Amino acid sequence: MAKITLDGLRHSYMPDPKGPQDYALKSLDVEWQDGGAYALLGPSGCGKSTLLNIISGLLVPSQGRVLFDGRDVTALPPDRRNIAQVFQFPVIYDTMSVFDNLAFPLRNRGIEESRVTSRVHEIAEMLELTSMLKMRAANLSPDNKQKISMGRGLVREDVNVIMFDEPLTVIDPHLKWKLRSKLKELHQKVGVTMIYVTHDQTEALTFADQVVVMQEGEVVQIGTPVELFERPAHTFVGHFIGSPGMNVLPAELRDGAAWFAGHRIELEGPITPGEGRHEIGIRPEHVSLAEAGLPGRVRKVMDMGRYWIVEAIVEGSDKTRVAAMVQSDPTAVGDAVHLAFRPDQTRLYRDGRIATTRQGGNA
């Protein structure tokens, strides 16, 4: 196991990059603690796979360093980093038995057979593969094949980090929850550093203790699932995490206050100094239908089972939509409503980044 440090990391696939737009990764400084469960979360093309390949040694960064426990491994090949990777599609030997697949990484390193047998049975029990150890891997379902891939990474005791690159892509939706839960349970048992790469917020938030959210080659926020949801540091995080995502509303500053559609909006705390494009962010969970507030007209009502999503057009806002999550039977499409924002959950963003300070706290 290892603490992984990315120090001033940048990478471009161009031989002579001219500016930030030419970089797939733009100046990353990230530290993952030994034994932690982390997720790299972001849309396709944001740099997740590039970063994973740099950590694994498949790619040498244009600038910066990769350190394992303070040791510079930037120039080392994958086989000298003691890492294990689990990919989107199961990487197994179909002609081998489940036992031999799990044993292969250990036998390849000359581990004595008694220890191989003991370790294989230990990992097989964790993955619920014990009853299949004598079966040929080719005869198994996709989810069990992916369990074998996971087991091939877990079976080694000398790994610094196990990296999962969208490992549930080929798994049926009804089995994904089970495998996510199993992976979380495995991390708690083996305690090895794990990095899980995905574009799926549910996978990231249910697996990781800390989530690294990426956009266009940059890390926009690192935090626990609760921190990312409750106080997004960037409008992209608010959009990307949550269903539906955070309301992001155009705002202007006047007299030291934020205004939207001609109404002064009470915020969580003081506005930090600065110039730029301003927006107000509030999650639908903190918008309610009330007797007073922003006047609007209901455009859409969606029954989500345990709650409703009401989408309203705010008067005087050039057709800006605001979503509210309500528990009681909502109003009908076309009705006039008033929208109330919970002040302590209402924030101002400047050029995408949070620009308010919580009362008694920090920005």
UniProtKB/TrEMBL annotation:
Pfam families in alphabetical order: ABC_tran (PF00005), TOBE_2 (PF08402)
GO MF term (any one): ABC-type ferric iron transporter activity
Highest taxon, organism lineage: Bacteria
Annotated transmembrane regions: none
Family of the protein in this entry: Belongs to the ABC transporter superfamily.
Organism listed in the record: Albidovulum inexpectatum
Keywords: ATP-binding, Cell membrane, Membrane, Nucleotide-binding, Transport
GO cellular component: ATP-binding cassette (ABC) transporter complex, substrate-binding subunit-containing
ABC transporter domain: residues covered: 4-241
SUPFAM superfamilies registered for this protein in UniProt: MOP-like, P-loop containing nucleoside triphosphate hydrolases
Record-given protein name: Carbohydrate ABC transporter ATP-binding protein (CUT1 family)
